[in-house]
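G., before I forget:
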Amino acid sequence: MDKAVEILREIVRIPSFVGNGQDESAMADAVREMLRDLGGRWKVTEQAVEGRRRNVFVSNSPDPKLLFLAHMDTVPPSAAWSRDPFAAEIEGGRLYGLGAVDMKAGLAAIVDALTERKDTAVPTAALFYVGEEYDFCGMRRFIAESRLAPETVIVPEPTDLKVYQGCRAVIGGVMTVIGRTGHSAMSRGTVNAITAGFRALSALERRLAEERDDRLGTSSLNVAGSAGGVRQDGRIAIVENMVPDFARFNFSVRASTPSAADLSLITKVVGRELEGCGAKLESCDCLGTGVMKSTGRFAGFPEFERGDESAFGYTDSEMLVSAFGGNPVVCGPGPMGMAHCPDEYVDLDEFGRMTDELRKML
Ligand SMILES: [Zn+2]
């Protein structure tokens, strides 16, 4: 069996979801062990994140120009699996397992390339980190305690081998609107909190549509949920002949420009629209730090197609690129659609093509 496939099988067999007494620490042990024989100028260091949970960093230079990123954690196994999520079964050109595609295949391809090309002259580093599927604790800790200036940052998350060089920022918000209630037949002086809230969100949507980028597309709003009615004895009642004085909206924004990712734009547009009706924006948070966009064209992966960043999710590599710079390249074996799905698998043909490309870079 191919050496890279063997590495992948070994790490798929190690549970690395977080919860139920599990975490990524056995994965960190295994990765460390696999990197032990690199020798030469390579140095492996560990960074404690939380209890036994830790990041593993390996580098052959104090100033690496090529940086690989891979998260070691997976989502928890769901009851919908029909296979053993930790058996790493191979069948019909697929390797099945929890995290096989997201992103143990990418991680295995990095380990394979480092061990195959340990004498490379390219100043290289790789960060294997915890908590990507949960609260980004590993990435946050790494950024807080490290200083790097990479030129290229390779992130082999599943993309069906398409090359993505950026991602939009994600902002989550909760808006609470307090209106003024009254009889719906005598509505003068009342403020309908539900319709006021929708008007504010419509204004926000129109404003966001003006925030566009040639690669990342148009900024967009998703109103994810809403609830409202009349406040009565500490609960919210729905009364047909009364004007609702309370509404809450949960929304998210995908921001494709730095100004759209700036929370003050949201508060300003929403605030202006709600002025005079006692409404307030309860909370508004950026998931990461902002928009990620490459500053140059990546010359590697000549055989792979370019992906459409305007229809691409958020990756926490954005936080690292925003902090340290570098050209981001998100590209890895798929199928992309199998991430977080029961009976997750990676396509072994795409995995093989990825390992070939990573070996060529070193
Ligand atoms: Zn992932």
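Residues 71, 102-103, 132, 157 surround zinc ion (CB under 6 Å). The chain has a mean pLDDT of 94.

More on Monday.
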